[in-house]
Write a structure and sequence with these properties.
Immunoglobulin-like, five-stranded antiparallel beta sheet, 6 helices, 26 strands, about 35% strand
């Protein structure tokens, strides 16, 4: 056998070996695959996944639809005497519902929107003065928002609508007409929380206490003094804290003034102001209280020498002036007046209590000095810290008329 023949024979053996090896490998792979399929298990959940909607709707009922076929221009007083269209909106489902009341002028309308007066309840103005919104009827002239609100489950609201031609309507409006329909838009009311408040917002909250007596033993005054904390019920946001609470200050100052007199009044000034501030709380909404200006002051001093001058009041002063743009506090008639801040000042001859004067400037009022006794009567303006978990019931916080309220 020659060398060439041997090499060819060996080559054939190598080829057979390679082919067998491949076949064996594939066979093993197939066996493994069948084994996996044989032992595979499948399971399903016992109960189905279900998503269903609940009732979300409002109802609208009304009477005395407005029909003035031969109307003429009226004064506002006369217009308010006309027969109204009375309608009621009711939330008939389980969820709190927000709504808007729109008045839509229909396609047949030819009177100018600036010639029609619209009154909802006691508020009236030209139809053209109301905010425009999307139309419900595609061929209508326009739609304008009259009011909006929120209804809880089962709650209802009744309105009286009056329309008349304005007394200043031009003569060119003769032989024209205005046709309209009330359209109610509603949606699921989202729950707003205290976290949505902004610095400067208005809040309506009434303190629980209606009377508090400030004893003469802590003021040095000749008699006890009484204040009414519940009279201060409008507040302004001055700070949002990292823990979710919110600091607010009274928009106004108290009606009653508080006298601090002599050494007794000076020693107890800060502690008494904080005690007074505590009376402006409401346990449903307020977590803590303080008199404006209280920081590192000792609330009650043991002696004149122990009451050192304090500058910590500047923290609150800067906070309020930055948030509201002014330190001025007004009384119930809107007249600027002075109010105490919890801070003492002393030098060799005088002991003073600090206050914000009627021009919004920090001033010192002498309480005692040179062994003499002085009497000072200044008003109260407390700061409250609101709880972090409060839910907003109504309002937008933009003004005193639309101040936020809490549930």
């Amino acid at each position: 056998m020659n060398e060439e023949h041997i090499n060819e024979e060996q080559l054939q053996k190598k080829k057979k070996t390679l082919i067998l090896s491949i076949i064996c490998t594939v066979g093993i792979m197939l066996v493994v695959g069948v084994s996996y399929a044989f032992w595979q298990k499948t399971k399903t959940q016992e109960n189905p996944n279900v998503i269903a909607t609940k009732c979300f709707d409002i109802s609208l009922s009304g009477k005395n639809a407005i029909d003035l076929p031969e109307s003429y221009p009226l004064s506002d007083d006369d217009g308010m005497q006309t027969l109204p269209f009375t309608f009621t909106i009711e939330n008939i489902c389980d969820y709190k519902t927000s709504y808007t009341v729109n008045l839509e002028s229909l396609a047949a309308s030819t009177l100018s929107n600036s010639s029609i007066k619209v009154a909802l309840e006691d508020n009236y103005k030209l139809y053209s003065s109301y905010t425009t919104t999307d139309k419900y009827f595609p061929d209508s002239v326009e739609s304008r928002i009259l009011t909006s609100g929120v209804l809880a489950k089962g709650e209802s609201k009744t309105y009286n609508l009056r329309l008349w031609i304005d007394k200043d309507a031009p003569s060119t409006e003769q032989n024209k007409r205005f046709e309209s329909k009330i359209v109610i838009n509603s949606e699921l009311a989202t729950t707003k929380t205290i976290s949505t408040l902004k610095v400067g917002d208005y809040i309506s909250m009434t303190p629980t206490s209606t009377s508090y007596t400030v004893a003469s033993s802590v003021t040095g005054n000749d008699t006890d003094q009484t204040i009414n904390p519940s009279e201060l019920n409008l507040w302004r946001v001055i700070k949002k804290n990292d823990n979710g609470t919110v600091d607010v200050i009274s928009e106004n100052v108290s009606t009653n003034e508080i006298y601090f007199k002599g050494e007794t009044g000076y020693l107890n000034l800060v502690g008494t102001l904080n005690a007074i501030a505590s009376q402006y709380g409401n346990t449903s909404y307020v977590s803590s209280t303080r008199s404006m200006g209280f920081s590192n002051q000792t609330e009650v001093c043991e002696s004149i020498d122990a009451c050192l001058a304090d500058t910590g009041y500047e923290t609150d002063v800067n906070l309020v002036s930055t948030a509201l743009g002014s330190l001025i506090g007004n009384d119930s008639n809107g007249v600027a007046d002075a109010y105490w801040i919890a801070s003492r000042n002393t030098n060799e001859n005088t002991q003073n209590g600090r206050f914000i004067n009627a021009t919004g400037v920090v001033s010192d009022e002498q309480i005692t000095g040179d062994g003499a006794s002085y009497s000072n009567a200044i008003k109260i303006r407390p700061i409250l810290t609101l709880k972090s978990n409060l839910k907003i019931a109504s309002g937008d916080g933009a003004s005193s008329a639309t101040a936020y309220t809490f549930e």
